[in-house]
Amino acid sequence: xxxxxFIQDLSRRLAAALPDSARTxxxxxxxxxxxxxxxxxxxxxxxxxxxxxxxxxxxxxxxAKLEELERRVAExxxxxxxxxxxxx
Length: 88
Known about the structure:
Layout: H1 2-16, H2 23-44, H3 49-84
Helix pairs in contact: 1-2
Protein name: Ubiquinone biosynthesis accessory factor UbiK
Main location: cytoplasm
Function: Required for efficient ubiquinone (coenzyme Q) biosynthesis. UbiK is probably an accessory factor of Ubi enzymes and facilitates ubiquinone biosynthesis by acting as an assembly factor, a targeting factor, or both.
């Protein structure tokens, strides 16, 4: 939804840069620019800030879990190697 608003706003601004004497051209340009911008942004596969922030949060939680699991494995390996080696 935000992308659509952004595209409409951008196409309006670009069309507004045309002189008032070219009103018909200006209206056509706004419609055409909106279509071109829509297509260009779809090809870029952009995400919203909210989607990006949500994925960053998931990544941070995953990293924290991974670090905890690595710590636990290292702890268990340390304990397990002492028990497996009777010379110690």
